[in-house]
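Support reply, case 0932

Customer input (verbatim):
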Amino acid sequence: MEKFQQIAAQFLSIPVADIDVAVIEVGLINATYLITNRNTSQNCILQKINTTVFKDVSALVHNTSSAVAVLQQSDYPLEVSSVIATKEGAPIFYDEDGNPWRMFTYIENSITLSKATSPIIAFEAAKAFSKFYKTMNSNGYVIQLQVVLPDFINFEKRITDYKSALETATEERKLNAESAIQFINEHIGLPDKWIELQTNNQLPKRIIHADPKISNVLFHQDTNEAIAVIDLDTVMEGTLLYDFGDMIRSYTNTANEDEISTNETFDPELFMATKKGFLFSLETVLEPVEKENLDYAAKVVVYIQAVRFLTDYLNGDTYFYISYENQNLYRTVNQINLLKGILAFC
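Our regenerated output:
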């Protein structure tokens, strides 16, 4: 851990020997560590930015700093994890290998959850994001974001990429994924309405989080009240329908993301609690076209995630991290099972 102590010392005015380092396992993109001052027990977050995903580090820093500034300057009711500059005043430290590192304040008495264990938890998480969206889209604040993830919610491109992968995949992988491919192909028209709405600019453009999974909400360790929205790296201009759909994908799945279950994996109570929380601060903000398409967004976002996992599997697992063979295929089947439950519900 000495290397991480040395890096943390670039941000903190304390001796290296007084720095404790612990790995934080949550998160699939950036490497994250809990830094603790042994003398004061004060904590902070150290993170190595994944430049394979975030190629433009300066744009990432700009967006994160801009979002934090809006939240801190407003009447935003939740806690905010602030950027800690290096001792030279820079937002990023580059190590000897050119890897970019940054540091954030740690929100004390907080925990993260990997699943929505009850309707109350789903409601609390969605309500926290609802407050986040309302603040970020307030008329009193102007935020100019740079593009860090091009075509992230371009569903037309996702379908095109899938079709290309299908053409170039090995026969073995296509045979393994035969039933998944059949389901995806049978529902290939599901995103058509979404693509048409976006092409015709019928969906209001708003600031979205773009990764509103349950683990990006901090809960108070004693009360389970949502106290913060974190991981602002993906903040971008888009449609709030995407974030709602991804909430449903994250909060209503009772199985782990790579678990293939023969049982029902969709929980309608969690769906309704998530929708109620999402509308908590947005009921009077959303336009009719947004409210009318919430249920549809849930279906199409889950479908597109299944497409993305299947595309990566067919391409030989080049994007999503896998820890064992066929994990992306299992993730695909998991999303398909979830989608079947949603399609039967609404």
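We compared this against your earlier run and they match. Two observations from our side: DSSP finds twelve helices and eleven strands in the chain. The chain has a mean pLDDT of 94. Please reopen the case if you see a mismatch on your end.
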